[in-house]
Amino acid sequence: MRNGVLNKVIAMFWRLVRGALFRQKRKMLMIAFTVALGASLATAMLNVMLDVGDKVNRELKTYGANINVIPKEASLLDDLYGVSEGRGVSDRHLRESELGRLKTIFWAFNIVDFTPYLNAEARMSGLDEAVRVVGTWFAHREDLPTGESLDTGMRNMKSWWSIEGDWLSDGDTDAAMVGGLLADRAGLAAGDAVVLESAGARRELTVKGIFEAGSAEDERIYVPLSVAQEMTGRPGLVSSVEVSALTTPDNELSRRAAQNPKSLSVKEWETWYCTAYVSAICYQIEEVLTDAVAKPIRQVAESEGTILEKTKLLMLLITILSLAGAALGISNLVTAGVMERSREIGLLKAIGAGNAPVSWLILTEILITGAVGGAAGYFAGLGFAQIIGRTVFDAAINIKPMVIPLVAILVFLVILAGCIPSIRLLLSLRPAEVLHGR
Amino acid sequence: MTKKSMYFKMIASALIRRRSGMLVALLAVAIGATVLSGLVTVYFDIPSQMRQEFRAYGANFILVSANGEALGAAEAEAAVACMPASEIIGIAPYRYETVKINEQPFMAAGTDLAEAKKTSPYWFVSGEWPEADGSVLIGQEVADVIRLLPGSAFTMTGTDPQGEAFSRDFRVSGIVQTGGTEEAFIFMSLADFASVMGDGGFDVVECSISAPQAELEAIAARVTERAAGVAPRLVTRVTRSEGAVLTKLQALVFLVTAVVLLLTMICVATTMMAVVAERRGEIGLKKALGAPDGSIIAEFLGEGLFLGCMGGILGVLFGFGFAQIIGVNVFGRAVHFQAALAPATVVASILVTGLACLIPVRSATEVDPAVVLRGE
Questions:
Q1: CA–CA distances in Å: residue B100 to residues A175, A402, B144, B169
Q2: Which of A81, A160, A369, B333 is the most buried (most CB within 10 A)?
Q3: How many domains does one find in chain B?
Q4: Where are the alpha helices (DSSP H) in chain B?
Q5: Cβ burial B85-108 (10 Å sphere, 16+ → b, else e)
Q6: Of B234, B269, B301, which one is at a domain's C-terminal end?
Q7: Contact B334/B328 with Cβ under 8 angstroms?
Q8: Within 10 Å of residue B162's Cβ, how many Cβ atoms?
Q9: Whether residues B167 and B281 fall in one domain
Q10: How far apart are CA B185 and CA B180, in angstroms?
Q11: What is the pLDDT along chain A (438 residues), one digit of tens a residue?
Q12: Cβ partners under 8 Å of residue B162, min gap 6
C-alpha cells in the first residue's frame, strides 16, 4: 500500500521533470547552451593550461642545446686560446659509437636532439693563420640500441643560423659550410672551392653554404664528421656533444644535487633521479658515456626555467579568470531561470507541495539540463583546445582525463550555487502573493 | 517633452522595480566586460613583459671596436646614447688580458660587476658577488685547476700591456658556474683590473636591451651612424629565438583571448535574452494599450544601453584589477593602463547587450499581443 503511494509520487515527480524539460524547451535549451559554453571554455582552458609547459618547452629548444658533454679532464685551453695541440692539452675524446646510448637513459624521451663535434685545425688556401674546422652531423639518422632510429644533427639545433646557399648533408664529403666572417676575410662565396691542409694532407672542398651565426662560429668551417675524423686521424672519436633536452625548472633539491648528488638521502636521490632536472639528465648522460662530463649550459637551462614558470603562471591566472567568468555566467543564468518560475512554484505550493519536493524538482530538472549541456560543452572544448594547439604550436594538445572530473565538479557546484539561493528565496514567498503576481 | 520624460520614467522604474532581474543582467554584462578588458590588457602587455623575462638569456647586443683596437669610454658612451634608456636592462663593458696564477695562464676579465649581474642573470655564483676592492669571481674551471674556494687568497702575476710586470694579491669571493667558456675566466671590477693593467679601452661591451629584433637592428644602424669607431652586432642566437618564441606565446594568448571572449560574450547574450524574454507579458500589455513597436524597442534598447554602460564601466575597473594581479604575480611589475581600452570595453558591452535585447524584444513585438498576454 505504502509502496504504491511512493511509486505514484515518484512517477509524478518524473512526469513533472519531463514536463518541464520538454514543455519549456526554449528555456531549458538556453540553460543547456550556456552550461555547454561554460563547460567548453573550462575544458579548453584546462587542457591548454596543463599542456602549455610541454609545448613552450619545445618552442624554447630554438635556443639550442642546454647540455654540453665533454671528455673528462678536457681543458678549455682550446676554446680560449685556440691551442688544441701540443703541450698541456689532454688528448681525450668521446666515442661516436656510444652516442646512441643517450637515448637509453631514464629520461631518454626528453632528449630532443644531440649532435657531436670534432675540432681540428687546418691551413686554408689564401689565409695565413690556421682556421678551426669542425666536423659534425648535419642531418644524421642514428640507429639506436633499442632498435629504433632517430633523426638528429646540427641542422635541428641551430635554427637561428641564416644560410646563404645550402645546408650540408652528411654524405657531402667533398663540401663544407663556412662562417660569414671567415668567408668575408678569405673572399669566399657559395660554390667556390677551398683547399684545407692539415698534418700534411690536402683536401679540396666546395663551399656549399655560408652561414651567419652571430657568434664565434662565424670564424669556423663546418664539415661532415667523417671528413674531420679523417683529417685528424681520429676515426670514431668526437671532442664534444651538444644535447638539447626538455627539462623541469630547477628547485632547491636539484641545486643541492647539482653540487653533490651524494649529499642527498636515498629518498631525495630517487626523487631527483626520476625528475627531469637538467642536473639529473646530466648525471644520467655521464652514466652511459665512458669518461664523459655533462654540464648544463646555464644560459639556456636557467632561462628556460624562468620562462616556463612565467608562462605556466600566466596561463593559470587566465584560466582562473575564464573559469570564474564561466561559473558566474552559468550560475547567473540559472538564477534567472529559477526566478522566472515563481508562479509555477507558487502554484505547486498552493496545491500542497512541501518545500523539499519542490526544491528537488527544480534541482533535478536543472541538473539534467546541465549534465547534457556539460557533456556537449566538454567535447566542444576539446575542439577549441585542438584549434589552439594546432594554430599556435602545430601540435595536438594532449587531452588529460583529469579535466573530465574537474569540469563535472565545476558545473555541478556552479549549478547548485545558482539554484539554491533563488529557490530559497522563492520558497520563502507566500503562494498567494506569488500567484497574485507581486 | 512629456513623451521624453515618460520614456525615462519607464526605464528608471523598470530598473528599480525589477531589481533582481536587472541585477542578474548587470552582473552578466559586468562579468563579460571584466573578462574582455582584463584579457585584452594582458594581451597587449604580454610582449613587453615577456621580453623582459627573455632577458634572462643574457646580452642580445654587443659593441666592439670597428678598427680592431680597444673601444674608448667616450665611444662606448656615444653608442649607448643611441639606445632607448627605458629599455636598457644592463650594459656591461669587458676588458680581457692574460694573467698568471702559480705560473699557469688564465684569462682575466675586468667588468662592471653590478651590470654583469644584470646582463648575465644566469650566472650561478657559489659564495658572494665581489663587493670590496681586491675580491674577484673565478670560474669553476679555474677553481678546479688551482683548487681555490670562496674566501681563499691567491697572487696574480703577469705583465701589463706596457710590458711591466705586476703582482697583486686577490681574494676569491665567489665561484661562477655557467656551463660555458666563462668558467675559465677570472672576473674583477674595472677598478681592480685597471690597478694591475693600467687604464685602457674595452674589448667588448655587452648590452641587454628589451626590444624586438627589428628595433635592435634600427639601434645598430643608429650606432654605426652616430658613434664612429663602434661596430654594433646583434647576438642572433638570442634575438632570433626570442622573436620565434615570443610570436608563439603571443599567438597563444591571442587565441585564448579570442576563444574566451567569444564564449563569454555569447554567455552574456543568452543571459540578457533570458532576462528580457521573461518580460513578454509586459511587452504584450504595452502593445495592447496601443504602444507602437518602435517605442517598445527603443525603451528596451534604452535599458540595454544603461546596463551595457554600467556593466562596461564596472568591467573596466575589475578587468584592470585582474590584469594588475597577473602583472604583479607573474612578472612582478605593474601593467600599463590601456586608455583606449576603456571606451572600447563600454562600447562592446553596449553592443552585445543591445543586440541581445533586440532579439527577444523583436520576437515579442511581432506576435499578436493577445497571444503573448495569454502566455503562449
A1: 41, 61, 15, 12
A2: A369
A3: 2
A4: 2-17, 19-54, 73-80, 113-119, 140-146, 190-197, 213-226, 236-277, 280-288, 293-326, 341-366, 369-374
A5: eebbbbbbbbbbbebebeeeebbb
A6: B234
A7: yes
A8: 8
A9: no
A10: 10
A11: 567 777 877 787 788 777 777 767 777 888 888 888 888 988 988 998 888 888 888 888 777 788 889 887 655 545 544 444 544 455 678 888 888 888 888 888 888 889 999 988 888 877 777 888 899 998 888 888 777 888 888 888 887 788 888 888 888 888 889 988 888 888 888 888 888 887 777 888 888 889 888 777 888 899 999 888 888 888 888 988 999 888 888 888 887 887 777 788 888 888 888 888 888 898 899 889 888 888 888 888 888 888 888 888 888 888 888 888 888 777 777 777 777 777 777 788 888 878 888 888 888 888 888 899 999 999 999 998 998 888 888 888 888 888 999 999 988 988 888 888 778 777 777 777 767 654
A12: B198
B74 and B208 part of one domain:
yes
Q: Please give the pLDDT value at position A116.
A: 92
C-alpha cell at A398: 594532449
Query: Tell me, what DSSP letter sits at residue B368?
Result: -
Q: Which domain holds residue B340?
A: 3-53+243-373
Instruction: Please give the pLDDT value at position B111.
Output: 92
| Backbone Cα Rg of chain B | 33
Q: In this complex, is the C-beta atom of B28 within 8 Å of any C-beta atom belonging to chain A?
A: yes
* Amino acid at site A433: E
The pLDDT score that the predictor gives to residue A322 is: 81
Q: Inter-chain contact B28–A339, Cβ cutoff 8 Å?
A: no
List, in order, residues 6 or more apart from A24 with CB less than 8 Å away. none
Pick from B241, B255, B256: which is nearest to A160 by CB? B241
Domain end call among B234, B255, B274: B234
Q: Cβ–Cβ of B266/A37 closer than 8 Å? A: yes
Residues B12 and B157 in one domain: no
Cβ separation of B329 and A313 shorter than 8 Å?
Answer: yes
Dig out the grid coordinates for A249 from the structure. 625548472
Shared-domain flag, residues B64 and B49: no
Mutate one of B267, B353, B367 to test the A interface: name it (highest A CB count within 10 A).
Answer: B267
Per-residue model confidence (pLDDT) at position A29: 84
Nearest CB neighbour to A329, from listed B46, B252, B264? B264
CA distance A170 to A438: 86
CA distances from A127 to A192, A196, A215, B303 (A): 15, 10, 21, 83
Same domain flag for B269 and B285: yes
**CB distance from A303 to chain B under 8 Å?**
yes
Phi-psi region at A291: left, alpha or beta (left = phi > 0; alpha = psi -120 to 50): left
- In DSSP terms, A245 is beta-bridged to A111
pLDDT recorded at residue A378: 93
Could you say which residues of chain B have pLDDT below 50? none
Q: Which residues of B touch A119 (CB under 8 A)?
A: none
DSSP state, residue A250 = P
Q: What is the pLDDT of residue A383?
A: 92
Closest to A99 (Cα-Cα) out of A353, A290, A312? A290
Q: Smallest CA–CA separation between B1 and chain A, in Å?
A: 31
Alpha carbon A217 to its chain centroid, in Å, reads 29
- B261 and B217 belong to one structural domain: no
* C-alpha distance across the termini of chain B, in Å: 36
Which of A26, A68, A322 should we substitute to test contact with B (largest number of B Cβ atoms within 10 Å)?
A322
Report ipTM for this prediction: 0.78
Whether residues B275 and B316 fall in one domain = yes
Please tell me if residue A395 touches chain B, with a CB cutoff of 8 Å. Answer: no
Is the same domain home to B47 and B155? Answer: no
pLDDT tens per residue, range A174-185: 888 998 888 888
